[in-house]
């Protein structure tokens, strides 16, 4: 199993994904869900690395070896949430029962008008967060996504809601451009949602305990949060079977501070806190884990940076991000 999740090809192909979209939209969710069984069988038989990653993760979260039926259930849960994206991104919420916790605290933070960073993960469905937009349409919601990864699925889902697609911040940009786009959005009072559990190949990361073993977590989200000085809220959209979801918001910090002299140690402390909350929800909903690769990394492939590797972690200064936004605004005005 390769720890480089970006090397894995997109499953199913463009034709299969569009076929599922068409049947789901015109035939209904019931027919779409019936298709999940052959899809699950396909992944179970054909996608060996994902199958092995699932078995390894489930053995870790349950503390015992698991059989093929547990792996099949894991893949089926993932397929179910992918199907539901068609309906959630299309604004068709009527068939879902979404229990929301922590919403008053999130409303309180957003109503300040200063912008919020919403940190999610590949645990459960991030798209169920769209329920928030339905309840408070006055909120500006921007999402950070890598458009180049899974291009067929991205293109298919973008057609469902062009407004959402227009608000996406492309994570495939260079680091300063991403930071600049996020700052511009938070300056406008937007909620910026991003996934913070996966470290890209070559991206600075630090190890934190997760399900009994050190796993690499990216440092960039925490450095951006420190530079922007905006509140950070965690979000977990857990699929509970059938048409039921649990959308949980948790306040993490009103303002993250990372001292320059103890940068690595401070970021590591933040990542450890986050990893503990991620592990808590993974144990509550174990089949919602959708990182189908070797999340921990093979021991013989080397380790990620330790707290002693502070020079490798590059900070994004708030002043630099602000200056970049001002430069872009000046260019637009001159054009």
Topology:
Elements: H1 13-27, H2 29-34, H3 36-46, H4 48-62, H5 68-89, E1 97-101, H6 103-110, E2 116-120, H7 130-135, E3 141-145, H8 151-158, H9 162-166, E4 168-170, H10 175-187, E5 191-195, E6 205-210, E7 213-218, H11 220-228, E8 232-239, E9 244-253, H12 263-284, H13 318-334
Parallel strand pairs: 1-9, 2-5, 2-8, 3-4, 3-5
Antiparallel strand pairs: 6-7, 8-9
Subcellular location: Cell inner membrane
GO molecular function: acyltransferase activity
Protein name: Acyltransferase
Keywords:
single chain; alpha/beta; seven-stranded mixed β-sheet; two-stranded antiparallel sheet; 13 helices; disordered C terminus; acyltransferase; acyltransferase activity
Q: Can you walk through the features of this model?
A:
It is a single chain. Helix 3 packs across helix 5, helix 4 (48-62) packs across helix 5 (68-89) and helix 10 (175-187) packs across helix 13 (318-334). The protein has one domain (94-334). It starts with 12 loop residues before the first helix and ends with a helix. It has 335 residues and is α/β, with parallel strands linked by helices. It contains 13 helices and nine strands. It is globular and about 55 Å long. Helices cover 47% and strands 16% of the residues. The strands form two sheets. The chain has a seven-stranded mixed β-sheet with strand order 1-9-8-2-5-3-4, sandwiched between helices. The protein has helices spanning 13-27, 29-34, 36-46, 48-62, 68-89, 103-110, 130-135, 151-158, 162-166, 175-187, 220-228, 263-284, 318-334; strands at residues 97-101, 116-120, 141-145, 168-170, 191-195, 205-210, 213-218, 232-239, 244-253.
């Amino acid at each position: 199993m390769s720890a480089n999740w970006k090397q894995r090809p997109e499953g199913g192909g463009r034709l299969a994904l569009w076929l599922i979209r068409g049947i789901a939209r015109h035939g209904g969710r019931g027919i779409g869900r019936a298709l999940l069984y052959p899809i699950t069988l396909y992944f179970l038989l054909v996608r060996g690395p994902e199958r092995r990653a699932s078995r390894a993760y489930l053995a870790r979260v349950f503390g015992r070896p698991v059989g093929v039926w547990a792996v099949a259930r894991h893949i089926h849960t993932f397929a179910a949430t992918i199907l539901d994206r068609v309906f959630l991104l299309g604004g068709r919420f009527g068939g879902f029962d979404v229990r929301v916790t922590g919403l008053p605290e999130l409303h309180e933070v957003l109503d300040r008008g200063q912008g919020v960073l919403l940190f999610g993960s590949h645990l459960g469905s991030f798209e169920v967060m769209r329920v928030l937009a339905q309840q408070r349409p006055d909120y500006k919601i921007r999402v950070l996504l890598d458009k180049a990864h899974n291009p067929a699925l991205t293109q298919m889902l973008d057609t469902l809601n062009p407004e959402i697609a227009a608000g996406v911040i492309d994570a495939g940009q260079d680091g300063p451009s991403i930071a600049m786009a996020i700052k511009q959005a938070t300056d406008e009072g937007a909620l910026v949602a991003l996934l913070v559990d996966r470290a890209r190949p070559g991206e600075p990361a630090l190890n934190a305990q997760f399900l009994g073993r050190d796993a690499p977590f990216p440092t960039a989200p925490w450095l951006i949060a420190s530079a922007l000085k905006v509140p950070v809220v965690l979000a977990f959209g857990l699929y509970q079977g059938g048409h039921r979801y649990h959308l949980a918001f948790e306040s993490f910090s009103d303002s993250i501070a990372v001292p320059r002299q103890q940068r690595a140690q401070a970021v590591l402390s933040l990542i450890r806190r986050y990893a503990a909350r991620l592990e808590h929800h993974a144990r509550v909903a174990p089949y919602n884990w959708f990182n189908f690769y070797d999340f921990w990394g093979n021991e013989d492939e080397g380790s990620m940076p330790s707290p002693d590797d502070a020079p490798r972690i590059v900070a994004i200064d708030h002043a630099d991000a602000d200056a970049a936004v001002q430069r872009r605004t000046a260019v637009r005005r001159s054009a």
